[in-house]
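re: the backbone from monday

yeah here it is again, tokenized this time
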């Protein structure tokens, strides 16, 4: 499962993409819902939990926590926009 990262999420992970290994490699099941994915990523990258919000898009549409995902979906993490003061 490949996840596209934007903004602060990209900075936290240190890459514009993130690959979540399949259960065949890790022995752990892949996240099946958006909510499970958020928990998985928050446990792997604790700084993601500190964001005020984190939107997830699945196949170019914003997705809610209960929506199902699979390894073939295009998934993107979209953090809140950063405030720029002038």
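seq for it, each position gets an aa:
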């Amino acid at each position: 499962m490949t996840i596209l990262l934007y903004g602060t999420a990209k900075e936290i992970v240190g890459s514009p993409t993130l690959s979540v290994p399949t259960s065949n490699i890790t022995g752990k099941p892949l996240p099946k819902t958006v909510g499970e994915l958020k928990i998985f990523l928050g446990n792997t990258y604790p700084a993601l939990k500190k964001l005020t919000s984190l939107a997830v898009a699945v196949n170019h549409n914003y997705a809610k926590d209960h929506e199902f995902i699979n390894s073939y979906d295009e998934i993107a993490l979209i953090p809140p926009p950063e405030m720029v003061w002038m």
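Residues 34-44 form the longest helix (11 residues). Strands lie at 2-5, 17-19, 55-58, 61-63, 75-78.
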